[in-house]
Every structure is written in C-alpha cells, then in structure tokens.
C-alpha cells in the first residue's frame, strides 16, 4: 500500500487525510470568493451602464448612449486576450496563487478609477478616454482571472467529483452578478431618491468593488498552491510560453469551438438581458433588475448539479444537451420574451434559457483544464477562452443593440442560435475528456 504504514494508527492516518481535505476545501472556497468579487467588479459596469452612460458621453437618445457604453465595455473584452496571456504565463511559471493575487490587484485599480472619474460635462472627451483606460485594466484582470481560477479549482478538486466542485466556479460568477444586481435593487428602492442614481449613485458600486478587491487580495495570499503546479514546476523552461502551447493545437481548436456558442448565449441571457427587458420588452429599469436577479438566483444552484451529472455520465453528454437545446430553442425563446406581457412570463422564459445554458457554464472550464498538461494549463485554458470572448462575448450587447437600432432585432436571435450550432458540431466530434483527462497525468499521488 502507498501512503501511511500498515503499522500506523488508523486514527492518525484518518486525521491526516481529513487535514488535507480541509486545506483543499479552504483553498477552493478562497478561490471562489475571490472570483466572485472579480466578477462583481467586472460585470457591475454593464449592469449600471444604464445609469452612467449619460455621464460620460454627449447627449443623445437612450439607445445611442447605451451603444457608446457597450462599445467601451467591448474594449475591456478586447484586453482580455492580452491579460490572459500575461496572467496565464505568470500562473504556469510562478504559480496559480501568485497570478490570482495579481489579477485582483488590477481589478481594484480599474474599479476605483471609474468610481472617482469626472463626467463628460466637466472634462469633455477626456471622460470617455479615462473610462476606456479603466476598462482596459479590468479587461487585463479578467483575462487572467477566469482561466487561472478555473485551472486552480480543477487541480484542487478531488478526481471523482471535479465537475461538482468546479461547478462552484460558475456559482461564484453568478454570485458576483447577483451581488451587483442586489446592490442595484437596494440603491433603487431603499437608499437613493429618484434621480440620484443617474446623478452620482452609480459610483457607489465601484467604490464597494474596489474595497472588496482588497479583501480578495488578502484572501488569496493565504490559499495553498496546487500539487499539480508544485510537482511540475521544475520541468522545461519553455513552460507557460505560447510556443509550448502551440504544440497542443488540437486542444486549442477544441477549446475555441467549445466556447463559441456558450459565450454568446451567456452574455445574451445574463449580461444583456436587463437591457433587453428595458429596451425591447418595455419593462421599467427596476422591474427588469428584479426579474433578472430572480432568474439568476434560480440558475445559480444548477451549476454544481450539472457538474455532478457530468461526473456520473461524462462531460460530453451534458454539453451536447446545451448545444441541441440552444441551437433549436434560442429563436423561439427570445421571440417569446420580446413579447412577454408580464414580469412573470419574462422570468419564466429567462430561467428556461438559463437552465439550457447550465449545460455549458457548469463544466466548460473543467473540460478545457482536462485538455492541457500542467505546464501550459493556465495559458491553454485562459487564452482561447479570452480570445473567443473578446470577439464574440464582448460584442454581444453591441451587436444586439445594433440590430435593434436598424429595426431587425430578430436577426440577433438567429445569431445566438447559429453560434450554438457551431459548438454543437464540436461537442459531437470531441472525445470524452473525463476519461482522457490530463489532470490525472501530473506525477503526484493518484486521485489527489
């Protein structure tokens, strides 16, 4: 037998095993909480842009101002590939923990810059320029955050229940969005009077985000480094480089194909949905925020449940479920939602879309972690994801509003369905990564 001697007391061995389990659990929780705060900071821009768009851009109609605000949001997404390369390389060379601490520091700077930024009325064109700079910092941070945190959780989670544990990564993402929406509702209904949100209240969430980023930095300085990184850190000096990553071209292409449909759907049914309810369905800002928050709250517990299912039947069947449902139902769902006559109907349709989306969001980062070896894993997980998100996810809101502006909004519905169809082809052709996972190939104790 490996591990403890046969003569060792059973109680001592059990205590040792429990201790290791507690360390891993504490690190997983720490990684998730940090990810929650990062996503709150990043998504609060889109959630509150309905209120601050008029502060940074010239006067115009609501759709024109939202287009300007979402164009700046897209700049943050365009910075994500560079941030993913920078932070992924750093994570593969210096450690997952060090990269996670660096990413949250950049997010803190971006959020606090937006919080104190003067308006267009005071400094003119310099206001949107500074907004772009702040969004670039946030984009650099998020570019490295999601891939590195996914790598960290995938390497920390026990082999038999990786899907379940990594499902909590998406729980932290949604929790960050719910925290932003919850703060929005609190400010709308309890703290601020009418007109104060547009005047200055939108600054509050960015101040809070900057402060909590400092708390996340404190948490991440205390989490453990993964065994997979520590056991492989003395390998070839090219680790973490793009040249080393390109040796895994098939995995790179799979990672991109896996992401296409899910990213378009995710940003449609979560980030853009609040604006869709206001601008298309005709709901008030307050009703749209409450409806979106309720749907996301119901969506949140589905992530570890779908991950648990993938631990039992495999990753591929779960993603095929998403691909088939999203490709065939996106157009009817969005069409019905655009005509929803009540908040209850809008909620039901939004939750139905989020249920389908769970087949992707719960496990896609784990699947990518299973495709790459430890020496390029953070870079391999993060860079294809960031590039695809920059091109497709970051432009989803902008494209939807462009179709709305020219009176052809239904074209956007077909765009969402088409993206899902592309990924479905990939899901049908790819291998089952649960059986071929490279997470099992580092030279550490089996199943650790």
How would you describe this protein?
The protein has helices at 10-56, 62-94, 96-116, 120-123, 126-156, 162-191, 196-199, 204-220, 227-232, 242-245, 249-271, 273-281, 285-299, 302-313, 315-338, 343-361, 364-369, 377-393, 396-405, 409-429, 433-436. The protein is mainly α and 448 residues long. The chain has a single domain, classed as MFS general substrate transporter like domains (Growth Hormone, Chain: A). Helix 11 (249-271) runs antiparallel to helix 16. The longest helix has 47 residues, at 10-56. The radius of gyration is 22 Å and the shape is globular. The relative contact order is 0.15.
- Give helix % range: over 70%
Task: Kindly name the structural category.
Answer: mainly alpha
Count of separate structural domains? 1
Question: Radius of gyration in whole Å, from Cα?
Answer: 22 Å
Mean pLDDT: 82
Instruction: Tell me the span between the first and last alpha carbons.
Output: 15 Å
CATH homology-level superfamily: MFS general substrate transporter like domains
Tell me the name of the CATH class: Mainly Alpha
Principal-axes shape call: globular
Characterize the largest beta sheet: strand count, sense, and whether it forms a barrel: none
Catalogue the unreliable spans: 1-20, 443-448
By CATH, the architecture is named: Up-down Bundle
Number of helices: 21
Strand percent estimate: under 5%
Secondary structure: elements and pairs:
Blueprint: H1 10-56, H2 62-94, H3 96-116, H4 120-123, H5 126-156, H6 162-191, H7 196-199, H8 204-220, H9 227-232, H10 242-245, H11 249-271, H12 273-281, H13 285-299, H14 302-313, H15 315-338, H16 343-361, H17 364-369, H18 377-393, H19 396-405, H20 409-429, H21 433-436
Helix pairs in contact: 1-2, 1-3, 1-5, 1-6, 1-8, 2-3, 2-5, 2-18, 2-19, 3-5, 3-8, 5-6, 5-18, 6-13, 6-14, 11-16, 11-18, 11-20, 12-13, 13-16, 14-15, 14-16, 15-16, 15-20, 19-20
């Amino acid at each position: 037998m490996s591990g403890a001697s046969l003569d060792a007391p059973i109680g001592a061995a059990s205590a040792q095993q429990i201790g290791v389990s507690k360390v891993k659990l504490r690190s997983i929780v720490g990684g998730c909480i940090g990810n929650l705060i990062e996503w709150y900071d990043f998504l609060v821009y889109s959630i509150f842009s309905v209120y601050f768009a008029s502060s940074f851009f010239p006067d115009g109609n609501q759709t024109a101002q939202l287009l300007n605000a979402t164009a700046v949001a897209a700049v943050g997404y365009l910075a994500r590939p560079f941030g993913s390369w920078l932070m992924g390389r750093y994570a593969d060379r210096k450690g997952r923990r060090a990269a996670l601490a660096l990413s949250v520091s950049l997010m803190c700077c971006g959020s606090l810059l937006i919080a104190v930024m003067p308006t267009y009325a005071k400094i003119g064109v310099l206001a949107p320029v500074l907004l772009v700079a702040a969004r670039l910092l946030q984009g650099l941070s998020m570019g490295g955050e999601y891939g590195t945190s996914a790598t960290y959780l995938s390497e920390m989670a026990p082999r038999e229940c990786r899907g379940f544990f990594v499902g909590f990564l998406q729980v932290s993402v949604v929790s960050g969005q719910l925290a932003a929406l919850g703060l929005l509702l609190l400010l709308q209904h309890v703290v601020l009077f009418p007109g104060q949100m547009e005047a200055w209240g939108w600054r509050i969430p960015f101040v809070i985000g900057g402060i909590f980023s400092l708390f996340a930095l404190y948490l991440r300085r205390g989490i453990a480094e993964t065994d997979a990184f520590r056991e492989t850190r003395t390998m070839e000096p090219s680790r973490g480089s793009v040249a080393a990553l390109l040796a895994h071209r098939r995995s790179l292409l799979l990672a991109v194909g896996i992401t296409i449909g899910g990213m378009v759907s995710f940003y449609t049914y979560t980030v853009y949905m609040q604006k869709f309810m206001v601008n298309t369905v005709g709901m008030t800002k307050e009703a749209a925020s409450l409806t979106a928050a309720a749907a996301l709250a119901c969506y949140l517990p589905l992530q570890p449940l779908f991950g648990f299912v993938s631990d039992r039947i495999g990753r591929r069947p779960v993603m095929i479920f998403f691909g088939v449902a999203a490709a065939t139902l996106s157009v009817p769902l969005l069409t019905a939602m655009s005509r929803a006559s009540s908040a209850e109907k809008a909620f039901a349709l939004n939750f139905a879309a989020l249920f389908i989306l769970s087949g992707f969001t719960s496990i896609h980062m784990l699947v990518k972690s299973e495709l790459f070896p430890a020496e390029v894993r953070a870079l391999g997980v993060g860079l294809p994801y960031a590039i695809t998100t920059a091109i497709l996810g970051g432009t989803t809101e902008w494209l939807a509003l462009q179709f709305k502006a020219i009176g052809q909004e239904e074209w956007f519905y077909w765009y969402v369905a088409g993206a899902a169809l592309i990924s479905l082809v990939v899901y049908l052709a790819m291998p089952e990564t649960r059986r071929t996972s490279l997470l099992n190939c580092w030279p550490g104790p089996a199943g650790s």
